[in-house]
Write a structure and sequence with these properties.
Helix content is 25%, strand content 27%. It is of the alpha+beta class. The protein has one domain. Strands 1-2-3-6-7 form a five-stranded antiparallel sheet, with helices on one face. It has a two-stranded antiparallel ribbon with strand order 4-5. Helix 2 packs across helix 3 (98-107).
Length: 126
């Protein structure tokens, strides 16, 4: 079975939080849910989540590129992105759309689930 674009995006995005693996629990037309595993060797280091997005609503490919770069260059500390990113030039995409991509990044909200209730969110900010 092919991996959905939503799952591919989530794998990239949740790296910002140190997630090592995602266990997919459900995927519908309007949402995707699973378990974010922070440490494969510690069964306590996990968080259930749900993302209320359809396959057509996923962020742009450029955002995935930006996230991978942020993670690789360590321009973040968990959900806090370094403000100097606004000043950087990127070879990977057209820099005239950088502000749009950053806005897209800050608009992502993936809900955390505890005891079958949506409680908090994964999101990033400066």
């Amino acid at each position: 079975m092919n991996e959905s674009n939503r799952l591919k995006f989530l794998k990239s995005y949740l790296k910002l939080y140190g997630v090592e693996k995602i266990e997919l629990t459900n995927e519908t037309v309007d949402s995707i849910s699973g378990i974010a595993i922070y440490d494969k060797n510690d069964s306590e280091e996990r968080q259930e989540f749900i993302w209320h997005k359809s396959e057509k609503e996923i962020p742009s490919p450029e955002l995935k590129i930006l996230i991978e770069k942020i993670v690789a260059e360590k321009w973040h500390n968990g959900d806090k992105i370094s403000e100097h990113i606004k000043e950087l030039e990127f070879e990977e995409f057209d820099n005239s759309i950088k502000e749009k991509i950053l806005t897209e990044l800050f608009d992502v909200r993936i809900r955390m689930v505890d005891n079958a209730e949506e409680t908090d969110s994964y999101y990033v900010h400066y």
